[in-house]
């Protein structure tokens, strides 16, 4: 979203009282977790046709072609089972997943941050010929939260009638969660569910800042035969040919903008980091409900890795929802220490910097110019 778009959406409202993220403690019921397993608002309108491949990176064009074919192969008639009690006690007919065709039942998008993996994953979801109730899209964290809310067997039952499950940002830095989700995916593949995934970097994996396909396939062990890896090369599109990220504004400018923009929040950065420790990351999406902009004062380096990882999740949810971020203090590329940027969570931190920078660019129009 461009700065002009953000500015037009957030026309000034004189005398508005800013909201506060620190005052929010959302509760997210299990049924909402299921209902929200769709591409986030930022990716509502993306399609394969709107993905603009870099002409210098033929792997991007090839990925689009392969994914279009994969989506088309998920078509066909779907038989209905007799009515049964639904997830929350409501009787309804449930569709069976189609019979498992020959060939890989999954695709894995292998690429660095900012090459459009989530765009392509969401495009696959949209292109798959099935009603939305038979397709699921979520991050790895959202999937593990679903298992925690429903239990393993109920999650298998809930998702086994789906045509497709897309998992963005497959977390591979917790062996226990990796085994849990790999076991879940094995059950879903047996039920005929097609899979698509992107992944994050394991601790200690540096190099290009991405988790290589060979390592991903090894980590999911018995599922590797079900995946076809698609490498997507390229630079971070969010900064491809764009101007440098805007410098932070003054505290006075940020505060004034927070009072002028509708549905804007205003929080001290350090206090917000402390508040995030009290809210489970599965609720960070709900934490941002209804926000038109996030205004932060006193941005400074995050003090430790746990805090940094929570900030990464918040940055992802803000980016998904296209919420501009206006800030005073240090620029976002100084949030994480050199030790963090050279450590095992390197890719997550660079993704957060990239996304927050894009949202800061969107927020420029919120500040009145002389």
Q: How many DSSP helices?
A: 14
> How many whole angstroms does the radius of gyration measure?
21 Å
Which structural class matches the secondary elements? alpha/beta
Distance between the termini: 24 Å
Give a short account of the largest sheet.
5 strands, parallel
How many runs of DSSP E, i.e. beta strands? 10
Percentage beta strand? 5-15%
- Write down the overall geometry: globular
* Unreliable runs: 1-14, 77-101, 201-211
Strand order of the largest sheet: 4-5-6-3-7
Overall residue-averaged pLDDT value: 81
Helix content: 25-40%
Order of helices and strands: HHHEEEHEHHEHEHEHEHHEHEHH
Folded structure, characterized:
The chain is 38% helix and 13% strand. It is built from 14 helices and ten strands. The chain has helices at 3-9, 30-35, 58-72, 117-127, 140-150, 152-159, 175-190, 213-219, 251-260, 269-276, 284-287, 305-320, 338-341, 346-363; strands at residues 84-85, 91-92, 106-110, 135-139, 164-170, 194-199, 227-231, 264-268, 293-299, 325-329. 40% of the residues are buried. Mean pLDDT is 81; it is low at 1-14, 77-101 and 201-211.
